[in-house]
Amino acid sequence: MKIKAITGMLIILINFYPGWVSAHDVEKKDDVIKIGVGQVNITPDKPAMMSGYGARKTPSTGVHDSLFASAFYFEGENEKHLLITADLIGFSFDFTEEMRHLIASKVDIPSQNIMLIAVHNHGGPSIGNHGPESVKEYTEVLKNKLVGLAVEASVNPQPFLMGMGKGRCNMNISRRAEFSKGEVWLGRNQDGPCDHELSVVKFETLDHKPLAVLINWPCHGTATGDSNYLITGDWPGSTARYIKKQIGNDVVVGITAGASADINPIYGPGNVFKEVDAIGFKLGDETMNVLSKIKTYPVKTLQEANATMTFPGKKSGKNHLPPTSYESGSDREIRLTVLKVGDLVLSGISGELMTEIGMEVKKQSPYSGTLVVTHCNGSSGYICTDKAFSEGGYEVQTTGLMPGAEKPLINKILELIHSL
């Protein structure tokens, strides 16, 4: 009787606890989400104008390490979504719209279900349809590679297992430092707000073979500076290389930047690649520690919500002191894209959020697996806290937004999350 009772209890637990679903059972179910992944080298094959620093006036002189774009394609019974990350500084709204329509014409997916994300790397090439001919040439090559990558990822999606974990990496720091006259400028402020949270998402086949890793950490890609003329993926590239060495070069590693408008690496900006690799080692090592503890499960839900917000704009300030008045500029658009894959929530924003805004979104989200992903589907520039305007600084000087965007933006992101 005891054996029968125990057996019956195990059957009940297996039926009601999704973590115990077997790979065979997952394969038989029609309602599970499938994934396709891919990665492509997007390193320029000739000298290129570099992005990120206005002081660089001449093309790159070589390649220190390769740049990559990574694709994550999700397919449900009635839903298809695509996420592409790239080791670049950002994408304009025009470029984003062109790419989404190009991809949608080759892949059976609604263009609004495509998230095009840059990690905000300051060591890569400039892109765009204007400027030097070399920039336009590279941009055309990039477009073709991104379309090919999307097609590759979507061709043969498979059932998968997913899990998420969190760690901490202190290799980032607030860059809003107070100087001798009390003014705020670019520096290192160890007492300033800084989100050190590292979010790691693991994707596996049904037999637990690694497929891909998605990382989110709040930090500018500025360990290298304007004195560096070698193409590099900066700390994101170094981190990806470290992880691939540990779990296999065929595993796709995608990296996204969290809310880091006011956050820099503790090293740089400079021209010392040992410092870049130090950040990559520490972040990669913590990622591996988190990965070792993640339990994976089948995914059954896939949802997305989009919104566009328009805010009053301002022109760039004359200096970095706290402004007493603002010169009106063109209205500024911010695009929001929230993708929910199982219990994972990717909150995409087309701009550079100050770290406290991202921390507030994660704090108020009903899902512990919420990632704030910046530089997603366009470039709205710096998005500052209201408090920052009373302090001044580089971000306040250069933002195209008037004060007052912080709370409405947070509320809208949370509204989209709650709608899923």
Features:
29% helix; 5-stranded mixed β-sheet; 10 helices; disordered N terminus; single chain; alpha/beta; 420 residues
Number of strands: 21
Mean pLDDT across residues: 93
- Looking at the structure, what is the overall shape? globular
Q: How large, in whole angstroms, is the Cα Rg? A: 22 Å
**Helix/sheet category:** alpha/beta
The DSSP helix count reads: 10
User: What share of the residues does DSSP label as strand, in percent?
Assistant: 25-35%
Q: Which regions have little confidence, pLDDT < 50, spanning 5+ residues?
A: 1-25
Query: How are the strands of the biggest sheet laid out side by side?
Result: 5-4-3-1-6
N-end to C-end Cα span: 46 Å
Major β-sheet annotation: 5 strands, mixed
Estimate percent helicity: 25-40%
SSE topology:
Layout lengths: L1 H15 L6 H6 L5 E8 L20 E2 L4 E8 L4 E7 L6 H14 L7 E5 L14 H23 L2 E2 L1 E8 L3 E7 L5 E6 L7 E8 L5 E8 L12 E2 L2 H14 L4 E6 L5 E3 L7 H19 L5 E2 L3 E13 L13 E14 L2 E6 L2 E2 L1 H10 L5 E4 L8 E2 L2 H4 L4 H5 L7 H13 L2
Parallel strand pairs: 2-12, 4-5, 11-13, 18-20, 19-21
Antiparallel strand pairs: 1-3, 1-6, 3-4, 7-10, 7-15, 8-9, 8-14, 10-11, 16-17, 17-18
Quick description:
With 420 residues, this protein is of the alpha/beta class.
What does this structure look like?
- The chain has helices at 2-16, 23-28, 93-106, 133-155, 234-247, 273-291, 355-364, 386-389, 394-398, 406-418; strands spanning 34-41, 62-63, 68-75, 80-86, 114-118, 158-159, 161-168, 172-178, 184-189, 197-204, 210-217, 230-231, 252-257, 263-265, 297-298, 302-314, 328-341, 344-349, 352-353, 370-373, 382-383.
- The relative contact order is 0.14.
- It has 420 residues and is of the alpha/beta class.
- The chain has a domain at 302-418.
- Helix 3 runs parallel beside helix 4 (133-155), helix 5 (234-247) packs across helix 6 and helix 7 packs parallel to helix 10 (406-418).
- The chain contains ten helices and 21 strands.
- The protein is globular, with a radius of gyration of 22 Å.
- Strand 17 and strand 18 form a beta hairpin.
- Strands 5-4-3-1-6 form a five-stranded mixed β-sheet, with helices on one face. Strands 13-11-10-7-15 form a five-stranded mixed β-sheet.
- 29% of the residues lie in helices and 29% in strands.
